[in-house]
Amino acid sequence: MQIKCLAAMKEKGPLEDFQYDPQPLGPYDVEVAISHCGICHSDINMIDNDWGMSAFPQVPGHEIVGTVTATGMSVVNLEEGQRVGIGWQCGACLECEQCATGNDNLCGESRATCVGNHGGFAERIRVDSRYVFPLPEKLAGENAAPLLCGGTTVFSSLRNFGVTPGMKVGVVGIGGLGHLALQFSRAWGCEVTAFSSTGAKEKEAHKFGAHKFVSSEEKESLDSMAGSLDFIISASPATLDWATYLNILKPKGILCVVGGVLEPMAIPAFGLIMGQKSVCGSLIGSRAAIREMLDFAARHGIEAKTEVTSMKKANEAVDRVRKGAARYRMVLKN
Amino acid sequence: MQIKCLAAMKEKGPLEDFQYDPQPLGPYDVEVAISHCGICHSDINMIDNDWGMSAFPQVPGHEIVGTVTATGMSVVNLEEGQRVGIGWQCGACLECEQCATGNDNLCGESRATCVGNHGGFAERIRVDSRYVFPLPEKLAGENAAPLLCGGTTVFSSLRNFGVTPGMKVGVVGIGGLGHLALQFSRAWGCEVTAFSSTGAKEKEAHKFGAHKFVSSEEKESLDSMAGSLDFIISASPATLDWATYLNILKPKGILCVVGGVLEPMAIPAFGLIMGQKSVCGSLIGSRAAIREMLDFAARHGIEAKTEVTSMKKANEAVDRVRKGAARYRMVLKN
């Protein structure tokens, strides 16, 4: 039976009703009836073909929550009726150096849910069960969907770069990723500082777990924080004053970029050398990281703050994400 | 008794004979009769006041080998007659967070042997014994002097950023630091690739331990190495094609800058994000790192390849370093 979905028929085009014949259910595949799908900024990038790797009709969506409705013959980790989540990645070779060391998100043959595949703006989807994750009961679908990509991304940065609970963490950019980074950092046990250009977000930043709020527009406030943080997550897609944020790090501090900044970052070598500092990037998360993240989120009550609308209103929802108006993540519901 | 030494009397001036009254020997101080002093590029920076922190008369020199001739009343680790080495750092608070965690090279009150102090282009020097290191017998003074700063710097980058013997390491720039980085990386157990713009250095690079030699001028050769190295030490003071070297790293790879590049580094965020990569800097080494480095160098027969000349010919020697003509490190001898 064909799968009903929403697709951009051309670059930057609106989403329209579309149907496609799914691949036969492979031995490791499951079919999932989708209840919710978050909208990530990378869905917009795919609609707009910003990365030159879209294929039209392009069905976006990779923050998926739903229920397993069919399982291939080799599936061992899932059963029909189970509530599950699916994120950006939908496959890897599971054989290479990276896969063998639990870093399958860095596999050279990594496949993505909505790149060359039809994504989650749909009623159903068929995906390799190794990239379908049981959802803890405590997590509501409409708040959990954005954890699968956005939550994973910020959680993995803490997990992969040695952040420990005694550390002081900064989060720059309090949007879809940032509001989750505040929650994860707080639950991780850290002292948390939110940096935002939007003063109106201060109150909510504290609700998300920030101990402090600093205006990223006030150079003096930023400079007064010199040498105070161990780890900064840059969740902003904007070009920041990188030297200033490096200066906010303590010796051995790490600035981790998870926002897709397009312009090359101007990094002063002496800003790295003098304090043995690092600038790094982090990309989604491995299967192990996603499982750990879901467990951690359920235990600590971490959830995305979302605006939920019906799948039929996807175009309006996409517009809100384009404008940066969503507080803090849009989720489509079937 | 006054200490005879060589000083630049003004910015960029030649070295001239100079004498000064040493500070009284403090409880933790030792006096060292200098046998050898290496010339590091930062000595030139100090003579030229490139960093705006020189004080004239400026006595350069911070890769010192000599013999203890007097010890203060609280000195516990050294005795008269002992052969020792002294590097860039000559003091720290030994109380702060960094000092207390064995990262005293990152102490905010770190003091340097030839910044605000008279350095090692001299017959004698008085220094805090906590920054004076017994020299293993196997290390000849004229080859060991450059280990105290240059050797420490490259050794610490391997030590501090989790390089393990199974890894593949690249060294960019085969000069004073680079030729030591090749030796340390090889002895560390790694597969080692040398990158140089000087084809004539290929043979020697192999002698220093490189398994492979790649011309840094040939973009095709560099591109063919995509995804092959775990750790790259950039020992070049030049602006490199950073995106290309990031691309040479495997996922989770680290590019570590130890060369004092002045121009901001243009780092593509996606070059970091897509492979969870890092760019970092490393600065000399802690007391613990220096001790470990000296022990490691002695065990593995690591020594700087040096051109040795008398202290009296310091101006000619400085000129060779200025021109990048030294193969691979100049050392002055009393």
Q: What are the salient characteristics of this protein?
A:
homodimer, about 325 residues, alpha/beta, Quinone Oxidoreductase, Chain A, domain 1, Rossmann fold, 7-stranded mixed β-sheet, 6-stranded parallel β-sheet, 11 helices, 18 strands, about 25% helix
User: How many separate domains of chain A?
Assistant: 2
Outline of chain A, from the CA principal axes? globular
Give me the CATH superfamily of the largest domain in chain A.
Medium-chain alcohol dehydrogenases, catalytic domain
**CATH architecture verdict of the largest domain in chain A:** Alpha-Beta Complex
Per DSSP, the total helix count of chain A is 11
Radius of gyration of chain A: 20 Å
Q: What is the CATH fold-level name of the largest domain in chain A?
A: Quinone Oxidoreductase, Chain A, domain 1
Characterization of this structure:
Two copies of one chain form a homodimer. By secondary structure, chain A is of the alpha/beta class. Chain A has two domains: 3-149 and 285-333, Quinone Oxidoreductase, Chain A, domain 1, CATH 3.90.180; 151-281, 3-Layer(aba) Sandwich (Rossmann fold). Chain A has helices spanning 41-47, 97-100, 141-144, 150-160, 176-187, 202-208, 219-223, 242-248, 269-273, 287-300, 314-322; strands at 3-8, 15-20, 29-39, 64-71, 83-86, 89-91, 111-112, 124-128, 133-134, 168-172, 191-196, 212-215, 229-234, 249-257, 265-267, 278-281, 306-310, 329-333. In chain A, the strands form four sheets. In chain A, strands 3, 4, 5, 8, 9, 17 and 18 form a seven-stranded mixed β-sheet that branches. A six-stranded parallel β-sheet of chain A has the order 12-11-10-13-14-16. In chain A, 56% of the residues are buried.
